[in-house]
Hints:
The complex is a heterodimer.
Chain A: E1 3-6, E2 10-12, E3 18-25, E4 33-39, E5 45-51, E6 58-60, E7 68-73, E8 78-83, E9 92-99, E10 107-110, E11 114-118
Chain B: E1 9-12, E2 18-23, E3 33-37, E4 44-47, E5 61-66, E6 69-74, E7 83-90, E8 97-99, E9 103-107
Amino acid sequence: QVQLVQSGAEVKKPGASVKVSCKASGYTFTSFGISWVRQAPGQGLEWMGWISPYTGNTNYAQKFQGRVTMTTDTSTSTAYMELRSLRPDDTAVYYCARDALGDQGVYDSWGQGALVTVSS
Amino acid sequence: SSELTQDPAVSVALGQTVRITCQGDSLRSYHASWYQQKPGQAPVVVIYAKNNRPSGIPDRFSGSSSGNTASLTITGAQAEDEADYYCNSRDSSGKHVVFGGGTKLTVL
Lengths: 120, 108
């Protein structure tokens, strides 16, 4: 079955960077895009961007342009999301999700989430 | 603020029908999908591309769209349907994905 397993919780200081991983299994990794979605405590879902593991093409939300980098390693079927210059309001659960229909935002499988806490 | 607008909270009596709406100009051009999220869990897609239901999702969940409004209808709401529901679609530029602010559904 399709599974996305993310790395564990992280605590970072303001100004630092964090890199979250998302290991996929149960399907052909290069056949589906991966999106990253975050959720601040008690808040809604926020789309951060998308990457094609097949081409490496990315599409970032304007809010995160210049601060986020999404990459994939097809040899290990793993996607990564790096967020730099962290601020306290970046504290959130970060999810990876498989896009079932290209880059249309139809997410049929989600990772378990990785809590990133930004605090001095 | 989100380009997709949802009512923050909706309630429904057990066994009754409830409609959760999502409004936005981009919905005139793009389909919406709907996600259910229970506390402490990752979201689960319940309807995608306007009115397609993934396998395993009960047929009491259905989707529709008219003009700038997409709707998720639960016909015969069950206690286990109590959750937060989010719509998503493309933004007005068509370049990016955007989520609605979410609707907390309470089943009375």
